[in-house]
């Protein structure tokens, strides 16, 4: 048997402990929940613990209260070995869904330009950003509640005003439609620059603090860890929006 410890947010009393315990027992054989400190120790086979979906657990917790879990450490692994164990996980395997998705977006956007007599970088960026926002908003909207919970873990506005997490996917959807139709691209680029630039601040802060939390870029569908990859994703959109603003003017 192995165990994993999680930090818990949102617990205030023994009633909270009971609610959280009841939910966690749906996922593992044994769950030891404490109020001081607010954490949970999940005990099960190593295989079952490795396959746990933190997004699904947090979604289940959100149905009984404003509770959120974050990974702390494997209890059966010495702290000095934790980084070694984590590094053994393939980077490519971890980010495979995101890399495949970006590959699809790149190929599709380049193919849209292949029919033109000359390659237009501005039009390519417009098509790429349209597909990016439409696809990423789709994944977030599949389980908007789970996304909002994960997003509130690191976004500077969502952690203070949780309803923003429910609004954000629709902002991305609107931006995707605006880039797709080409309506008022100046304003669309400006909104993208502000929204994605602000969003990247929380991501950068979390990465610098080395917080082991889930990236909500693909909603609750995939369990992707927060890392510099997320920073690149956000800043890429900021850079494209800035380039198009400079090329076409304000």
Low-pLDDT regions: 73-89
Q: Which geometry do the CA atoms define?
A: elongated
The number of helical elements comes to 11
Helix-strand sequence:
EHEEHHEHHHHHHHEEH
Strand order of the largest sheet: 2-3-1-4
Helix/strand structural class: alpha+beta
Largest sheet: 4 strands, antiparallel
Our Rg estimate from Cα atoms comes to: 20 Å
Helix content: 55-70%
* Tally of discrete structural domains: 2
Beta-strand residue percentage: 5-15%
Compute the average pLDDT: 83
Count all strands and give the number.
Answer: 6
Q: Kindly report the oligomeric state of this protein.
A: single chain
What is the first-to-last residue Cα distance? Answer: 61 Å
Q: Can you describe what's shown?
A:
The structure is a single chain. By secondary structure, the protein is α+β, with helices and mostly antiparallel strands. It has two domains: 2-88, 2-Layer Sandwich (Alpha-Beta Plaits), CATH 3.30.70; 91-248, no CATH class. 61% of the residues lie in helices and 12% in strands. The protein has eleven helices and six strands. It has helices at residues 14-24, 46-50, 54-62, 79-88, 91-94, 96-114, 121-142, 144-151, 163-181, 185-208, 228-248, and strands at residues 2-9, 30-34, 39-44, 68-74, 214-215, 224-225. Mean pLDDT is 83; it is low at 73-89.
